[in-house]
Design a protein that fits this description.
Oligomer: single chain
Number of domains: 1
Largest sheet: 9 strands, mixed
Order of helices and strands: EEEEEEEEE
Helix content: under 10%
Strand content: over 45%
Length: 140
């Protein structure tokens, strides 16, 4: 089964990412796709590695697909995002969102083989603020 491009909404809690950091988060995530006018959902046990510098980010994601028609397959994603407000990390209001400038997503193995480009706009709730000049490491 070949899937049309997958979509996902990514919202990060502020304790899992910061303006200048390397972070790792492992959690279940849901992706959706349209196939023959039907919405298909797949759930992935996703490992997310994020490198941020002043809110600009590189997201490297991979994981096993747990449910849906692609169960047993593997998902890999690489996204480069730019902070919507380049001064957001230094301001009182913080950085609320970053937008992808490059993204590729691949599903391999199992019953599905797909390559997609596009990207996921990342929302930070609450907005992230740079509290110091230290670069941190976070694992959640």
């Amino acid at each position: 089964m070949f899937l049309n491009c997958l979509k996902s909404t990514a919202t990060y809690e502020s304790d899992s990412v910061s303006c200048n950091a390397f972070s790792y988060v492992s959690k279940n995530s849901t992706y959706t796709s349209k196939k023959d006018n039907k919405t298909i959902e797949i759930t992935v046990q996703l490992n997310t590695y994020t490198v941020t510098l002043n809110g600009n980010a590189i997201f490297m994601l991979n994981g096993m697909i747990q449910s849906g028609p692609c169960a047993g397959g593997h998902l890999d994603e690489l996204t480069f995002s730019v902070a919507d407000d380049q001064n957001g990390c230094l301001s009182q209001k913080g950085l609320a969102q970053s937008t992808p400038v490059y993204s590729i997503l691949r599903i391999s193995g199992g019953k599905c083989e797909s390559d997609c480009s596009g990207g996921v706009t990342t929302m930070y709730s609450p907005p992230i603020i740079n509290h110091s000049d230290d670069i941190s490491f976070k694992a959640c």
